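User: Hi! I have a protein structure encoded as tokens and I'd like to know what sequence might fold into it. I'm fairly new to this, so please keep things simple.
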């Protein structure tokens, strides 16, 4: 069933009164922390640390190391960054390619400042790998670039969980099941639930082209991740960079290219017709001069999936006209033989396997009459007397997505996003066309949200998200 409307109003306000420490309650943003020392091994208080986005060129609000030489940069959007450390009397340090995912707590290894001029920059390249050392969670982030050419389901971002260690594909929940456990999964897009509250399943299955990364927490996650005891699957939509980028793609599947399977051949049926196309495009970049000092960025993608299917033959065993009148004298079993004598609940059996009118149930007869009459004479070894070829089902599914990011200042940024699904209003043929068809009167799903991030200092930040999926 279709889920009811859900609304999210999440306000996160972290106040840490002690020295620089890990910042909690972040779901869509991350934290980068580390320690600065000098060449003698002494800690360096008062050094300035800044993160610069390698995709957009925007900078984070600067933070200063405390008396222990520690720093924490909270409220960091999922991206790849260059970290720069500066202090009077020391040569600046740069560490490039620092990846941050939503909810990450990235702990950098100790960085060493050396005496020298400000024009002498030290680029750190051969350091230990980055680790998530500030919580006991087990998690894994998958970017779409990593799986761009892999043969997985590109129509749903939860398919990326197949790349996550400790996750078993399949199960009752979308996205698989964590190893050694179960429970329903929780799925979010940019901090907004993507769950159908009617059936506790995934409500919006967005294509991978519109998703920047998917982070999966398998166990040990923090209290801010609630609602479910299974996997916590968090998707971050793509945003524009400081250069214009775009893509164009198309994938076709056609039953003409398939062999006829053994069952279809044995039944003497024609090969079913199935033709699906997945095609789309994306474009993103700055609102301004590419490579310049831009603050406004956009991303737009649109995927089209025209689908056509017909010709599959379904077979059923339905009540015959005699059986609907209570006469089972001609009823055959699956081996083509007459059935045994019907037992009368009042004692004995029914003579000639015919139920008298006085013992027939009018409501039951009315229900049986809703089924279509047989159109096939049941033969020996057959368990059906009705053959129905499904009619042509043709429809177009679309998935648009748009995101706008505006960096007012290093401390303040606003993000607006929309993603949705548009299908065709129609009657979808059921397994028994004309009997269990499904009316799709409003096949639209809309997911929108606005997020405001404001950083006061290294221990205080504000993050507010308002959105809806319906």
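Assistant: Happy to help. Inverse folding works backwards from shape to sequence: for each of the 470 positions I chose a residue that suits the local structure. Here it is:
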């Amino acid at each position: 069933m279709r889920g009811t409307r859900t609304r999210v109003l999440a306000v996160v306000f972290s106040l840490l009164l002690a020295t620089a420490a890990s910042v909690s309650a972040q779901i869509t943003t991350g934290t980068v922390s580390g320690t600065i020392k000098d060449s003698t091994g002494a800690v360096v208080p008062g050094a300035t640390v800044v993160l610069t986005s390698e995709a957009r060129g925007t900078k984070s609000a600067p933070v200063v190391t405390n008396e222990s030489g520690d720093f924490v940069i909270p409220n960091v959007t999922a991206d790849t960054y260059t970290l720069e450390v500066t202090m009077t009397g020391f040569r600046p340090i740069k560490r490039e390619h620092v990846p941050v995912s939503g909810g990450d707590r990235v702990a950098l290894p100790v960085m060493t400042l050396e005496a020298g001029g400000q024009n002498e920059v030290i680029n750190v390249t051969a350091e230990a790998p980055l680790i998530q050392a500030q919580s006991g969670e087990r998690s894994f982030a998958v970017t779409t670039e990593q799986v761009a050419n892999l043969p997985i389901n590109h129509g749903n971002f939860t398919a990326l969980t197949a790349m996550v260690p400790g996750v078993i594909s399949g199960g009752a929940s979308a996205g698989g099941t964590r190893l050694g456990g179960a429970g329903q999964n929780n799925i979010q897009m940019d901090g907004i639930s993507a769950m159908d509250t009617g059936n506790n399943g995934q409500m919006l299955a967005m294509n991978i082209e519109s998703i920047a990364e998917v982070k999966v927490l398998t166990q040990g996650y923090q209290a801010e991740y609630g609602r479910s005891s299974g996997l916590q699957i968090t998707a971050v939509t793509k945003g524009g960079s400081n250069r214009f980028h775009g893509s164009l793609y198309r994938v076709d599947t056609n039953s003409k290219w398939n062999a006829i399977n053994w069952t279809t051949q044995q039944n003497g049926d024609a090969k079913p017709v199935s033709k699906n196309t997945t095609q789309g495009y994306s474009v993103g970049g700055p609102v301004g001069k590419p490579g310049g000092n831009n603050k406004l960025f956009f991303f737009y993608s649109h995927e089209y999936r025209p689908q056509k299917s017909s010709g599959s033959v379904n077979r059923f065993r339905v009540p015959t006209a005699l059986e609907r009148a209570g006469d089972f004298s001609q009823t055959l079993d699956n081996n083509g033989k007459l059935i045994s004598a019907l037992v009368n609940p009042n004692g004995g059996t029914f003579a000639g396997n015919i139920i008298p009118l006085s013992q027939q149930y009018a409501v039951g007869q009315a229900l049986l009459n809703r089924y279509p009459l047989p159109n096939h004479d049941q033969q020996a070894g057959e368990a059906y007397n009705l053959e129905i070829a499904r009619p042509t089902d043709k429809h177009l599914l679309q998935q648009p997505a748009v995101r706008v990011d505006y960096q007012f200042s290093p401390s303040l940024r606003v993000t607006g996003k929309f993603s949705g699904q548009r299908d065709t209003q129609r009657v979808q043929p059921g397994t028994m066309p004309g009997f269990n068809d499904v009316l799709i009167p409003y096949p639209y799903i809309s997911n929108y949200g606005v997020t405001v991030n404001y950083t006061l200092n290294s221990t205080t930040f504000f993050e507010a998200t308002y959105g809806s999926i319906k």
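A useful reference point when you look it over: Helices lie at 262-267, 321-324, 362-368. Feel free to ask if any position seems puzzling.
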